[in-house]
Amino acid sequence: MSAHPLAIRGLEQEFRSAGGTVRALDRIDLTIEPGEFVTLAGPSGCGKSTLLRAIAGLTRPTAGTIHVGDQLITRPGADRGVVFQKPALYPWLDVRRNVEIGLKLRGVPKAERREIAERQLEVVGLSDAAGRRPYELSGGMRQRAQIARVLAGEPDIILMDEPFGALDALTRERLQAELLALWRRTGTTIVFITHGVDEAVYLGSRVLVMSPRPGRIVFDESARFLRGGEPVPTDEVRSLPEFTDLATRVREAIAA
Ligand code: ADP
Ligand code: MG
């Protein structure tokens, strides 16, 4: 678990093009504590991916700063793993090698990275598919492979951009439950973008909503559902009145 909070201060992002300037993010201030599962919802085009890419260090903000602890984020780093909607797997490598690739680039010895890959493939339920190529996998399996690869790097923060958005409902629900179990077990900080209200409220320990462009955080609430101080079992969460209540308010915040 990361010991350092993620601190975003006065973040602004503009894009210049021939047609003029697009302001994507407007003065975002946000602190995410270690171990939080933050879900971020908002209308299409409001700047969710832009914010995630900034945290990943893939873009340089126009103004403002992002820190993890006292480290200023200026580039991608092994402390932050990114899971995209479209799994970025190498088609010519089998699943195991796709999971190992980051470790290989970092110089982790073969026996060690194989062991790590096998452990993570087991975590995501892909052990039997280790020798298959990406084209031989379903969408859900490809997404599992991408998650295994990110987990293999042991990042402090996992950044996920609508990772289950392209999956069928059944596969999505299964992966949601698996991700929650994984988060509970590891306590890894997760920032998860979705345009699904149900998904945001179900997964998040904290739910954020962004306004239409230029994106600002307009809603920020805890989404922990407790009963007698203990988390309500995940298969019961959706039927809680508090769940429906929060989902309604999130929906209103998105529509506002
Ligand atoms: P979301 O993920 O919430 O759908 P994005 O962060 O992808 O929204 O985009 C926010 C806005 O910034 C959109 O208007 C999009 O067209 C614009 N945008 C994003 N990336 C770029 C870029 N590299 N160049 C120009 N405009 C961009
Ligand atoms: Mg997006």
Please explain how this structure is put together:
The two termini are 36 Å apart. 36% of the residues lie in helices and 26% in strands. The protein has 256 residues and is α/β, with parallel strands linked by helices. The longest helix is centred in the last third of the chain and has 18 residues, at 169-186. The protein is built from eight helices and twelve strands. It has helices at 48-56, 95-105, 110-123, 139-152, 169-186, 197-203, 234-237, 241-255, and strands at residues 6-17, 20-32, 37-41, 63-68, 71-72, 80-83, 157-161, 189-193, 206-210, 217-222, 226-227, 230-231. The structure holds adenosine-5'-diphosphate and magnesium ion.
* Strands ordered across the widest β-sheet: 6-7-8-3-9-10
Tally of DSSP helical segments:
8
- Largest sheet geometry: 6 strands, mixed
Number of domains: 2
Distance between the termini: 36 Å
Number of strands: 12
Radius of gyration from CA coordinates: 18 Å
Helix content: 25-40%
Top CATH class of the largest domain: Alpha Beta
Poorly predicted runs: none
Mean pLDDT, nearest integer?
Answer: 93
Kindly identify the CATH topology of the largest domain.
Rossmann fold
User: H/E series, N to C?
Assistant: EEEHEEEHHHEHEHEEEEHH
CATH architecture of the largest domain: 3-Layer(aba) Sandwich
Beta-sheet strand percentage? 25-35%
Ligands bound to this protein structure = adenosine-5'-diphosphate, magnesium ion
Structural class: alpha/beta
CATH superfamily of the largest domain: P-loop containing nucleotide triphosphate hydrolases
Shape: globular
